[in-house]
Design brief:
The structure is a single chain. This protein is mainly α and 280 residues long. The protein has a two-stranded antiparallel sheet with strand order 1-2. It is elongated and about 70 Å long.
Length: 280
C-alpha cells in the first residue's frame, strides 16, 4: 500500500464519513428560545461521547405535548417539542414541529436553524442551506446556522464554501475545537494539507482528548509518508477511546506497511467494533 492510497481507502470509508454521523452534525439549539446553546458530541476519553449539555428527558415530552395542545397559536411549544424530538432522533416529527413554529412565527430564527439541522441529518442539504440562510438573515448573531450551513456545504463537496462558513463560525466561537476539525476536512479535500494540519493541531490544543482530531491528523501524516508520526497520533487516539474503529483501521494499514505484525490485531479489533468495514 502506497501513501496516496490512504486517502481513498480510509478517509472515505471510515474517518470522515463516520464522524459526520456521530459528531459533527449533531448540533441543535437548546430548547429555550431565548437561551442560545450548542449541543455537540465528540470522541473523548474512555470511549464516551461527552455532550456539551445533558441529554433529553423523554418524560418531559408529555408536558410539551400538553403545552402544544393548550397553546396551538404559539410558536414556542412547537419549537421546544421539535428540539426534544430532534435530540431523541425523531427527525421527521421534529421537522414537522419546526415547520409549525415557523408557520406561526415566520421570524423565528432558531426554528429555521434547528430545522436546518434536522434536514442535514437526513441528507436534504440544499433545503437545510435555505433554512440556515433564513436564520442568518433573521439573526446574524447566531453562530449555529453558520456552522450548520458549512456542514451542508461540506457534505455537498462545495469545499471553499464550507471553509468560508467554518471560518465565519470560528470568528464568533474561536475556542470551540469541533469546527477546526470540520474545516480541516474541507481543506484536506481541497488539497490544502498544511492548513488542514494547522486546524487539526488547533483542535487538539483546545481539547487534548479530541480523538477524531488525532485520527484526522494521522491521515495527513500517512499521506505524506510520515508513518511513524501517524502511528503516534493513532496510538494516542486509541489510548483515549479504545472503541474508535477508524484509528485501528488506519494504524493497521500503517503497521502492515512498516512490516509490524501488530497490523493483524488492529484489523481484527476494527472488525470487532464494526463488522461492516470493507477492509483488505
Amino acid at each position: 500500500m502506497h501513501a496516496q492510497n490512504f486517502k481513498t481507502n480510509i478517509t472515505a470509508g471510515t474517518i470522515f464519513s463516520q464522524s459526520f454521523a456521530t459528531k459533527a452534525n449533531a448540533r441543535t439549539i437548546s430548547s429555550s428560545r431565548y437561551a442560545y446553546g450548542v449541543r455537540a458530541t465528540r470522541y473523548r476519553k474512555n470511549g464516551s461521547r461527552a455532550k456539551a449539555v445533558p441529554g433529553p428527558d423523554r418524560s418531559k415530552l408529555a408536558l410539551l405535548n400538553t403545552l402544544v395542545r393548550l397553546l396551538p397559536d404559539k410558536a414556542e411549544p412547537y419549537y421546544n417539542r421539535g428540539t426534544m424530538l430532534l435530540e431523541l432522533g425523531e427527525i421527521h416529527n421534529a421537522i414537522s414541529d419546526f415547520a409549525q413554529a415557523i408557520a406561526v412565527d415566520g421570524s423565528f430564527a432558531l426554528a429555521y436553524s434547528n430545522r436546518g439541522s434536522a434536514l442535514n441529518l437526513i441528507g436534504r442539504y440544499y433545503e437545510a442551506i435555505v433554512d440556515f440562510d433564513c436564520a442568518i438573515k433573521l439573526d446574524p448573531r447566531l453562530p449555529h446556522p453558520l456552522y450548520g450551513r458549512a456542514q451542508a456545504y461540506l457534505r455537498l463537496a462545495q469545499y471553499q464554501k464550507a471553509i468560508d462558513g467554518f471560518s465565519d463560525y470560528i470568528k464568533i466561537c474561536p475556542n470551540d475545537p469541533i469546527p477546526y476539525v470540520e474545516r480541516g476536512k474541507a481543506y484536506y479535500h481541497h488539497a490544502r494539507n498544511d492548513e488542514a494540519a494547522t486546524d487539526y493541531s488547533m483542535a487538539i490544543e483546545l481539547d487534548p482528548n479530541f480523538v477524531e482530531a488525532y485520527a484526522c491528523r494521522a491521515l495527513l501524516h500517512a499521506n505524506a509518508g510520515n508513518y511513524v508520526a501517524a502511528v503516534d497520533d493513532l496510538t494516542k487516539a486509541i489510548s483515549l477511546d479504545k472503541n474508535y474503529p477508524p484509528a485501528y483501521v488506519l494504524r493497521s494499514a500503517l503497521y502492515r506497511e512498516l512490516g509490524n505484525t501488530q497490523w493483524i490485531e488492529d484489523r481484527k479489533r476494527a472488525l470487532e467494533l464494526d463488522s461492516n468495514l470493507n477492509l483488505w
